Amino acid sequence: MNVRCTALSLLLLGGLAAAAPPGRTCHLPGSEEALRCVTVPVPLDYGTPGKTITVHATVAAAFRESARPDPLFVLAGGPGQAGSDILPVVQAAFRRVRATRDIVLIDQRGTGLSGKLDCKTPPDIDTMTEEQADADALRCVRSLAAPYGSYTTDAAARDIERVRQALGYRQINLWGGSYGTRLAQHYARLYPASVRALVLDGVAAPDQVIPAGGRDAQAALETTFAQCEKEAACARTFPALRSEFASLASQLAKGPIKIDMADPRTAAVRPVTISLRRFVATVHRVLYAQADARSLPFLIHSAYNGRWEPFVARSNRDTDLSADGAMAGPLYLAVVCAEDFPRLTPQLVADDTRGSFLGAPQVTQLAALCPAVNVKPVAWPAATRIAAPALLLSGAQDPVTPPRRAAAAAQWMPAAQHLVVKNGGHIVSPLGCIPRLMREFLDSPATPVAAVCLDEIPAPTFQLDAAGPQP
């Protein structure tokens, strides 16, 4: 969760007589087909009605004309990612669901097409020092002069209800990924009558503090190291992986490394500064997806031997023109500085970072940026029961929301089923048989899901050299 991640045919209104569908036909990046774009006015401040903003929703109509009346609302992660940023997920994860249900992707206020809070990425972002990057983030936050206190999870949940009403659905199903699971749970508690079922992937626990991720990140790193040691080719190629990683971290703890190297994208020679913060943040992000995690031994070994190009290329991927670079950084700050940072006590930081490679660089960065956002602490509500059936999905090697987080959330969901993908990382909905299982669950939420097929999802192969993963 990098601060500067720089980190759905006409709609058949459920059960209503045919009427002119809201919105307009639109074509958005990531989809070749015509979709339906809807903008819904919502109060900027639900406590003080008056000024309004608009929230964008993208509707992908069900393939069958006789669509079921309860759509699937998709809530992206971050916070800072928009539903319109993850349109390819509709094809990858929700194609089976879409056979009989509309898919509605929400752009949370402050993201995507809902008044994205963001500034243009500086062209030299990849070569900036930490001090320069932090100064640019401060400039961005201050230049927007946005009412950041209005960009909360609670306001976003109330926006979803306005969208549901505008589209005419009586009940909806919710899919949330990562931070989207926090938003989905909050919506389900605010509007229980509006929720038919939930699918939560990469589940945030009710009491989870987003920046406190050291323990989970270290567990994922240890698992990757152990798997390399047990795989003959990986162990043979990288016999000193742990000590090489420790050596790099120790060296960077003494100060940044400055090197001249060819830009992985332009081939132009340029100076690059590799700080401890950049190093650990990149390692953390690599651990999110299993395919990426299996490249980590190669990246570490190359860097240890002075060849930083592969590592820097992977680090730069978050600022490329891709879904990874579409995060609204100031929206992330608005939410986290109000809802998480106030709960980040010194004791929690100490307990979470003890023995973790992640350390406390993000906490330090937030301490510098949150005063500029100038939001009042939000008292995060105590968890209450969610009666709607829920399918909770976890990747066993998730460095952010591992299964223990879902287990904590499930304590408040008496009708929850929890599935764990042994060879899964952060967000597993597109993998293997899971798209089919989500369809089966939504068709019959009270029926136990037969999840034996999850064991058939293979582990990616390790990357041993510059040629890429093993065949």
TrEMBL record:
The keyword Signal applies. Keywords: Hydrolase, Signal. GO terms for biological process: proteolysis. SUPFAM superfamilies: alpha/beta-Hydrolases. GO terms for molecular function: peptidase activity. GO terms for cellular component: membrane. Residues 71-207 form the AB hydrolase-1 domain. Residues 1-19 form the signal peptide. InterPro entries: AB_hydrolase_1, AB_hydrolase_fold, AB_hydrolase_sf, Pept_S33_TAP-like_C, Peptidase_S33. Gene3D superfamilies: alpha/beta hydrolase (3.40.50.1820). Pfam families: Abhydrolase_1 (PF00561), Abhydrolase_4 (PF08386). Residues 359-449 form the Peptidase S33 tripeptidyl aminopeptidase-like C-terminal domain. Belongs to the peptidase S33 family. This is Pimeloyl-ACP methyl ester carboxylesterase. It comes from Pseudoduganella lurida.
